[in-house]
Design brief:
With about 250 residues, the chain is of the alpha+beta class. The protein is built from 10 helices and 8 strands. The longest helix is centred in the first third of the chain and has 17 residues, at about 75-90.
């Protein structure tokens, strides 16, 4: 990869964290301002960045266009959409569709709850594998060697007082997830928010995504959320079969 292309991509990564001035970008990239300005002009000409009235640079419209197209090209998102919409209408809670990106999950779709309580999550947001139901589902499905490789880079930070912060305890949790076919996050990632998740399987039977349902405790209690597990497993099973998965007796439930 050329040096200029690398620097241009780093600019986009920095701006992904928020608007920045020319000086801030030069400092972040550790290069001279004239170099950054030249790259910014090229990126602006193609609408990958734009400068606002306060002379700060932001991500441009071209990136959002490409992001939208990229999401539409994800087969699992397209196949899952009608089923997730039906589930959301039936139960009214926030629903996420996630994929794993090494030691993190990435939300590739989100359906808002039908009540007045909104969650801060959004499409494209990343989350930890160790404290989310979706992360547990996706990690539990990995072969042991791959699972351990991912966990070698996980620090197990405490997101709440309920977060699992011990690797052995987390591995025991993943064993339970594999056995029962779904995962829970009982206020482990965010205080006062419970979550359940289940895998979406591809034709080979491996988990290619996870569907999770998140509910603030002020909307519904933990026991009420647990009542949705059969419905969650039913919808992930339907999505999996639409993707080409054909369960056998040896396959875990989905």
């Amino acid at each position: 990869m050329s040096t200029s292309l690398t620097k241009a991509l780093r600019i986009l990564v920095v701006l992904g964290e928020g608007p920045a001035s020319l000086d801030e970008l030069a400092t972040a990239l550790e290069v001279h301002k004239t170099t950054v300005l030249r790259l910014l002009r090229t990126l602006a000409d193609e609408h990958f960045v734009h400068r606002d009235d306060h002379h700060r640079y932001r991500l441009g419209s071209r990136l959002f266009e490409l992001s939208s197209r990229g999401l539409d090209q994800r087969e699992v998102r397209t196949v899952a959409a009608p089923h997730l919409h039906a589930f959301n209408r039936a139960h009214g809670h926030t629903v996420h569709l996630s994929e794993r990106d090494d030691g993190e999950i990435v939300y590739i779709d989100k359906l808002e709850s039908l009540d007045n309580v909104r969650m801060a999550s959004r499409v494209g947001l990343r989350g930890p594998v160790h404290s989310t139901a979706a992360g547990k589902v996706l990690l539990a499905d990995l072969p042991a060697t791959e699972r351990n490789r991912v966990l070698d880079d996980v620090d197990f930070p405490a997101r709440t007082p309920h977060t699992i912060t011990d690797r052995d305890a987390y591995l025991a949790e993943l064993a339970r997830v594999r056995e029962q076919g779904w995962a829970q996050d009982r206020e482990e990632n965010e205080a006062s928010i419970n979550c359940i998740g289940a895998p979406v399987r591809g034709p080979a039977g491996t988990a290619v995504a996870a569907v999770s349902v998140s509910v603030p405790t002020i909307v519904a209690g933990y026991d009420q959320l647990m009542e949705l597990v059969p419905s969650l497993l039913a919808v992930t099973g339907t999505i999996s079969r639409d993707l080409g998965w054909r369960p056998t007796r040896e396959d875990p439930p989905a």
